[in-house]
Amino acid sequence: MRKLVPLLAIVALLASACGDSNPVGVGPVTTQTVPDAGTAPPATTAPPTTAPPGGDTTTTSTTTTVPAATRTVSIYLFDDDPAGPYLVPVERAIPDTPEVGTNSLQALLSGPTPAEQPEFSSEIPAETLLLGLAIADGLATVDLSREFEAGGGTFSMTGRLAQVVYTVTQFPTVERVEFRLDGRPVSVFSGEGIMLDEPVDRSDYRDLLRPGFDDTPVAVPQRWEQDDLPATAGVPPAELSRVVLVASDDVLNVRSGAGVDNEVVGMLAPTVTVRRTGRNAPVGRSTWAELVTPDGTGWVNATFLGAVVDEASFAADPAARSRLDDLAEIVATDGDLRDIVSERGLYVAHHAGPRRFNPDELAGILTDSTTYQWPSNAADLEDVPFRTFAEAVADRYLQAYDDPDVVVQPNEPIEAGNGRPAEFAIPFEFQNFNYFTVYDPGDNPDFGGLDWTIWYVSIDYEDGRPVIVGLTLDEWAP
């Protein structure tokens, strides 16, 4: 392997949290809506697709603007229960505007967030657009683009209808739903021949719910900010955790017991620090942890809890620093990344919101020929060529890390000359992790130093051992 580099200086990690509001009534609803108007879309990327690899031209990464005020509603998704899947309500923060029905449907069409994807899915095609929503005399007329009936399968078609119906009828002004596609009334839906010659309501889809599930709309649980939670001052770090990997416009559900079958009793805002009771429970492929809440105790999926390690201890930990060497060596030898990454898998932010590679996907990924569209700010997604994980991520990290001029420092972002505040390069979801900056300065005189590359390597601790949980790329490639 080629030579590695020494450790440099330390400064502070930046973190932030988003606002909150209380749920209110449905209010007026617009009849024509521009897709994504007034919403902050969750950070997602296109799924892996096989295609010939190629080059890429990139600029710098961006962040999502969070609405100044939000309210909480339910959207309906399908859980991963092996006996189901079952239709379940999932809380979502939407813009606090009078068009609550429209905003709720826009949130539904956006699908599960990255934080929800291990547990929930949607039958609604991602390309579906909301063209209009009108409510009168208890009837909601929902106009969707023709993509809504794309695909096949009776369950998928029935499921997507149910998702819309249950999401809209959570409001007291809506009892029934009538569908339109591209402005035209629908009497027979899709090639499955589902009859929609009259308005439908919740009773038409109750067989998609878990047996015994009460589908009566319920009050939305409280969202807890840091000031709402029990004090953590003086509590040993081993008993604390930080909420991680949750987008700025999302929340972490707190349930009455371990697992998604249990009632949601509260919601944690992103980045808050919580106290754990020490009780854990395995549920399927996940581990759930019990927390102390303002209302007693509750359970969360521990995937979204990170260790509390102060910056000085992190900077002084040689094991944490050695993970950068380990990553370079594994890449150089086509080794197994699972030896040094989190049990959650590895999240990669390549000029977009974090994309998760689960542990099974990481096995052999350095030699895997599967290609992906890695986003670029210099081109539309359809114009971005396809590359393997090794080409787009691993080899480029090694190239930067092995450069003779590389700068490595803990918990300090670098402003590399493009004029954008450096701290915004790190995705919100990673902001409760300690990290190392790996900076390869521009050295091509033809570009005046603008051919620089930065990798931010986010580190968590699992069972006291430092592991890599996230890689963030920030670069300028003329």
Rounded radius of gyration (Å): 23 Å
Helix content: 10-25%
Strand order of the largest sheet: 19-18-25-24-23-22
Number of strands: 25
Instruction: Give the overall shape, derived from the CA principal axes.
Output: globular
The amount of beta strand, in percent, is 25-35%
Low-confidence stretches: 1-68
**Major sheet details:** 6 strands, mixed
- Tally of DSSP helical segments: 6
Question: Helix- and strand-based class?
Answer: alpha+beta
Distance between the termini: 29 Å
Averaged pLDDT: 81
Oligomerization: single chain
Describe this structure in words.
By secondary structure, the protein is an alpha+beta fold. Helix content is 13%, strand content 28%. It has six helices and 25 strands. It has a six-stranded mixed beta sheet with strand order 19-18-25-24-23-22. Helix 1 (100-110) packs antiparallel against helix 2 and helix 4 packs across helix 6. The radius of gyration is 23 Å and the shape is globular. The protein starts with 69 loop residues before the first strand and ends with a strand.
Essential attributes:
478 residues; alpha+beta; 6-stranded mixed β-sheet; 25 strands
Question: Topology, pairings included?
Answer:
Layout: E1 70-79, E2 87-95, H1 100-110, E3 120-121, E4 130-136, E5 139-144, H2 154-168, E6 176-181, E7 184-185, E8 188-189, E9 194-195, E10 223-224, E11 240-243, E12 252-255, E13 264-268, E14 273-283, E15 286-293, E16 296-301, E17 305-307, H3 311-315, H4 318-332, E18 346-350, E19 355-357, H5 359-362, E20 371-373, E21 386-388, H6 389-401, E22 407-410, E23 434-440, E24 453-462, E25 465-475
Helix pairs in contact: 1-2, 4-6
